């Protein structure tokens, strides 16, 4: 009878002991479903902590995420989890269900690859366990694919329902300003009704635009005088006014989905006629009348300051005067755009006066010295290349010390519009035009 082989104590110590699995508890909810899943993450963590306590699992870290898993590579916490598993920080994942890890083939494939390479040992859920076993990995992929199928079908069902509602005359989204949603008692869905407070004002707004040729700014001033406010109590901006004037919903017809060319007749009362709407569109197609004679690129100081009276932006006006000798002299004036106050009384300022005032303030203005130095260095290097390549002057010299304020003063008086605009971008001070003078509002002295 063969004798049994005995293992010495020394040989026993060489046998490696299995290491305990280091789990990361991963909880996720879809950000799109924020209202319906407000407590989802907390409940997942609570349930999985109870499971870990029951089975004696070693949870190294808990990670939470509010991101949809429909597309791969869009979840920063999950991506970091994958990277940490490759580094050996975790060897197991504890999560509520497989669809928390992924609803797309890309993320599921990353998980399976980690198992194939031996980085990920096990995935535990509330009712299942998945290890590096062909059958268990196959089941994991099936469950993830099933979650993706349900998600895709849900999107198709939603779109089908929206299309059906649109064909019934009910656009499946929030009604524009001038209408309200109302759900009568006993009915399953709400309906769109005219807002008794704002509806008639919207109709008059279209009339002002069509019959009086009122611009968006004029209509905004009129709405302010009417004390008109949105449903949330805010004033209507000029951009919103133009969006409303272009919205065919007010005629009782709408396009859904937008841009597909399919029009539906709404099951609600129109605020304006199709003829009135068409008249407004003709005026909008003409565009605003040009107020100034030149492009904004010809003006160097339009974006550097605001109006001290109404906080609007500053624009420029170019005027030309014919002299007695036949020459044409160009004058540039900077003044308030009146975007926040149509009747702002802030006086304008000539460009020459503006430059003189900036020159006087140059020692007090907060100028980005580092950016200005880079500009000077670039100009000096270009001059060196020109001297060597064109003039034949050899020998490279270092850039001498330059007084930044003197350089800024030189650009203001002698630089091109492009150089002046670049210098303005390096000014950190908050400048305003008040009483025909430039004031540095960021300075405590002003």
Spatial order of strands in the largest sheet: 2-1-3-4-5
Please indicate the count of domains. Answer: 3
What level of helicity do the residues show? 25-40%
Q: What sort of overall outline do the alpha carbons produce when their principal axes are compared?
A: flat
CATH class of the largest domain: Alpha Beta
> How large is the share of residues in beta strands?
15-25%
Q: How would a crystallographer describe the biggest sheet?
A: 5 strands, mixed
Low-confidence stretches: 10-17, 290-296
- The quaternary state of the protein chains shown equals single chain
Write down the Rg: 35 Å
Category from helices, strands and their pairing: alpha/beta
Number of separate helices: 13
Describe what this molecule looks like in 3D.
Helices cover 39% and strands 16% of the residues. The chain is flat and about 95 Å long. It starts with 8 loop residues before the first helix and ends in a 6-residue tail after the last strand. The chain folds into three domains: 20-151, Rossmann fold; 179-286, Putative Large Serine Recombinase, Chain B, Domain 2 (Hect, E3 ligase catalytic domain fold, Alpha-Beta Complex), CATH 3.90.1750; 296-388 and 404-440, no CATH class. It is of the alpha/beta class and 446 residues long.
């Amino acid at each position: 009878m063969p004798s049994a082989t005995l293992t010495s104590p020394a040989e026993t110590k060489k046998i490696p002991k299995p290491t305990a699995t280091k789990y990361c508890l991963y909880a996720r909810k879809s950000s799109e479903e924020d209202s319906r899943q407000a407590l989802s993450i907390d409940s997942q963590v609570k349930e999985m902590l109870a499971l870990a306590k029951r089975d004696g699992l070693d949870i190294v870290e808990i990670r939470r995420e509010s991101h949809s898993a429909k597309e791969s590579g869009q979840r920063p916490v999950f991506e970091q989890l994958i990277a940490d598993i490759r580094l050996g920080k975790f060897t197991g994942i504890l999560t509520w269900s497989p669809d928390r890890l992924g609803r797309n083939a890309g993320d599921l494939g990353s998980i399976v690859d980690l198992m194939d390479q031996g980085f990920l040992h096990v995935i535990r859920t509330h009712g299942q366990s998945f290890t590096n076993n062909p059958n268990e990995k196959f089941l994991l992929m099936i469950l993830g694919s099933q979650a993706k199928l349900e998600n895709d079908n849900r999107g198709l069902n939603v779109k089908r329902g929206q299309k059906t509602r649109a064909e019934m005359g009910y656009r499946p989204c929030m009604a524009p300003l001038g209408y309200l949603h109302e759900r009568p008692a006993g009915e399953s869905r709400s309906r769109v009704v005219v807002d008794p407070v704002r509806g008639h004002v919207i109709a008059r707004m279209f009339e002002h635009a069509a019959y009086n040729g009122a611009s968006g700014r004029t209509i905004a001033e009129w709405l302010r005088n009417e004390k008109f406010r949105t449903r949330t109590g805010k004033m209507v901006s000029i951009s919103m006014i133009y969006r409303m004037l272009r919205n065919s919903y007010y005629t009782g017809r709408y396009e859904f989905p937008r841009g597909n060319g399919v029009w539906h007749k709404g099951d609600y009362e129109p605020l304006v006629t199709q003829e009135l709407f068409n008249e407004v569109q003709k005026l909008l197609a003409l565009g605003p009348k040009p107020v100034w004679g030149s492009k904004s690129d010809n003006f160097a100081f339009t974006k550097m300051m605001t109006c001290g009276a109404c906080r609007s932006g500053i624009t420029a006006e170019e005027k030309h005067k014919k002299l007695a000798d036949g020459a044409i002299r160009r004058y540039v004036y900077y003044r308030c755009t009146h975007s926040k106050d149509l009747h702002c009384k802030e006086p304008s300022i000539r460009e020459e006066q503006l430059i003189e005032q900036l020159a006087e303030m140059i020692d007090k203005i907060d100028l980005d010295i580092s950016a200005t130095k880079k500009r000077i260095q670039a100009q000096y290097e270009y001059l060196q290349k020109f001297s060597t390549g064109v003039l034949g002057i050899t020998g490279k010299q270092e850039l001498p010390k330059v007084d930044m304020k003197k350089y800024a003063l030189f650009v203001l008086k002698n630089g091109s519009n492009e150089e002046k605009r670049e210098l303005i971008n390096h000014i950190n001070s908050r400048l305003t035009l008040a009483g025909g003078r430039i004031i540095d509002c960021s300075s405590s002295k002003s």
